[in-house]
Amino acid sequence: MAADTTISNPAMFCRQCEQTQDHIACRTVGICGKSPETSTMQDVLMQTVKSLSLWAVAAREAGASADEMKDANSWTLSSVFSTLTNVNFDESRIEEFIKEGMTIKRDLEQMVTAKGGVAPDGDVARLDLSKMDTDELEDFGYTVSIPELQKAMGNDDCFSLVEIASYGAKGACAYAAHCRQLGYVDEDVMTGIHHVFAKVASNEPDMEGLLANALRVGELN
What we know:
By secondary structure, this protein is mostly helical. It is built from eight helices and no strands. The protein has helices at residues 36-61, 70-82, 91-114, 134-143, 146-153, 156-181, 187-199, 207-220. The longest helix has 26 residues, at 36-61. The protein is globular.
């Protein structure tokens, strides 16, 4: 799953579906019609999902109940589902998800502190996009694109496992989002989803840990 290195500074880099340009990624406009702006904003949203997931894991480890995790669970399912193929090309709505995620993450941070839990460390855990406007969010999005994240990890095999787990977890979220529409949310499934996204938040090329993480997605599905 190596990124295409023959094109520098692509307008976008989306391989959400199986019909991507050259079977690598859409880099100018999506085959589906997705714009570079929407694609970039979705990259920001997924980084927000990873950040919130780190705090969701910490909150549960600190003793948070299923009821206390309802907002985080619901937001995660809606946000991840919005990035799936042909679901949501509304950049303004995706921006709303980002801002909502920052608010819920702040609530989780306070919960972890109140329960005497251990706060997660690292830049992704400390991510704060709450005061960024649309242009600033788009600029940030280019720093967390697939090629940039792959460069940061520095190991193509490990990054392939990150991608496998990420897209697999998106699929699990799709199933879970439909279940939620029918009034059912499984806390064990949500715990697993947040663990998967928390693991891929790291740039550490942890082959064994990332393989276990990818296999965990299979257990969730």
